[in-house]
Inverse folding.
């Protein structure tokens, strides 16, 4: 699949929501835990060799599942292939929990659900659509209708 | 750079709702011929397929950080997706009608994660302030703390300015709503201006919401201000739903003999 790599690399260089050195294992046969720098930027998780400026890879965090595994470890898998897990071992349980929380909220779809929720709540409380003042109430992406996962 | 392409392809083709979809002509990178492709916009990802029925996208354009502009071109209904870098490619696309072009330009220019986050934060702030206001009462006027009732945050304004000049999207004035719980009024009366205007009559803009901190490559620096607001509120309102559901289930079982 073609993609605009230059822009993705540029995104990887931007200030991260969260970044840390962790041990990471990819879902490939025979792969082992390796020290990586992981960086969360918008809905992408970039992973780098610790001394390199360019990421080895990126994971788009949509339709994914973040699971607590054993102590200090969490995994990311994607709903169409739940057994294929990217595993991350953190320095502490606390760090592990922080990452789980951050990654669960990192998807565009999560943002959208939050927005629809807040919009609905505000509308219920005030009778006014808070998006009207920005002229975006008709945008498809903000609609209150039943949106499937 | 590796990308989780299989998951991307799944995201593109699964039945989650698209923010826009349709045929567009895409100008080639080297050759200026246009190719008709089926485009699907989901979130900040613009996928394109050879055919509408294709099972896998030919490619994807990550839209984060792009600007969308109308094109001055011999071709009708063209617009461009541009990125900031010096060697960045510009994607030139052409729609099949004026309406389609406008629809695409609008949805693409608001497709970024950053934009979505901005709007979510703004609404979250409004909701928190409303709840704060309800809990503590706001008798007599708006609180001194920057009130988002008065005006739009200037970040959102700047974001609006980046949109191309289509039929103008003029944000309406938002009068300052005064909450007065004590008097039992259900709907706050709207007052324009709240005594905190700057001298020229324009409301003072609230301070900018914090953006991503420049040095946030530190471990543990989180930009999300109230990370569990949505979760907390979801929990809170969820309890009411759970109770209602419980009541409904009991009613379904019918009256006890």
């Amino acid at each position: 699949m073609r993609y605009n790599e230059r822009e993705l690399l540029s995104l990887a260089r931007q200030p991260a929501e969260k970044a840390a050195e962790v041990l990471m294992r990819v879902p490939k046969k025979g792969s082992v835990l390796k020290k990586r720098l992981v960086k969360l930027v918008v809905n992408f998780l970039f992973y780098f060799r610790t001394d390199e400026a360019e990421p080895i890879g990126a994971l788009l965090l949509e339709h994914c599942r973040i699971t607590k595994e054993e102590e200090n470890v969490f995994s990311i898998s994607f709903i169409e292939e739940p057994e294929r897990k990217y595993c991350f071992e953190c320095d502490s349980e606390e760090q592990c929990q922080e990452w789980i929380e951050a990654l669960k909220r990192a998807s565009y779809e999560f943002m959208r659900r939050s927005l629809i929720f807040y919009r609905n709540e505000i509308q219920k409380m005030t009778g006014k659509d808070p998006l009207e003042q920005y002229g975006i109430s008709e945008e498809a992406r903000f609609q209150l209708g039943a949106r499937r996962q | 750079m590796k990308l989780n392409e299989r998951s991307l392809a799944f995201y593109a083709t699964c039945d989650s709702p698209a923010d826009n979809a349709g045929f567009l002509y895409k100008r080639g990178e080297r050759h200026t011929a246009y190719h008709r492709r089926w485009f699907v916009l989901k979130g900040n990802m613009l996928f394109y397929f050879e055919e509408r029925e294709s099972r896998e996208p030919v490619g994807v354009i990550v839209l984060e950080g792009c600007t969308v502009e109308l094109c001055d071109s011999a071709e009708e209904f063209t617009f461009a997706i541009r990125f900031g870098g010096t060697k960045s490619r510009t994607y030139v696309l052409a729609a099949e009608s004026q309406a389609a072009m406008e629809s695409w330009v609008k949805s693409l220019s608001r497709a970024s994660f950053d934009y979505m986050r901005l709007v979510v934060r703004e609404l979250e702030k409004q909701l928190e302030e409303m709840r704060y206001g309800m809990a503590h009462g706001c008798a007599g006027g708006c609180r001194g703390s920057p009130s988002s009732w008065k005006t739009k945050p200037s970040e959102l304004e700047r974001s609006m300015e980046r949109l191309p000049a289509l039929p103008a999207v003029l944000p309406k004035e938002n009068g300052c709503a005064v909450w007065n719980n004590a008097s039992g009024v259900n709907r706050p009366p709207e007052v324009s201006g709240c005594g905190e205007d700057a001298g020229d009559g324009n409301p003072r803009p609230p301070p900018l919401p914090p953006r991503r901190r420049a040095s946030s490559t530190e471990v543990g620096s989180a930009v999300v201000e109230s990370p569990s607001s949505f979760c907390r509120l979801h929990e809170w309102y969820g309890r009411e739903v759970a109770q209602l559901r419980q009541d409904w289930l009991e009613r379904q079982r019918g009256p006890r003999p």
User: Anything to note?
Assistant: Chain A touches chain B through 69 residues (CB under 8 Å). Strands of chain A lie at 2-3, 18-25, 34-41, 44-49, 57-60, 64-68, 73-78, 81-89. The two ends of chain A are 24 Å apart (CA to CA).
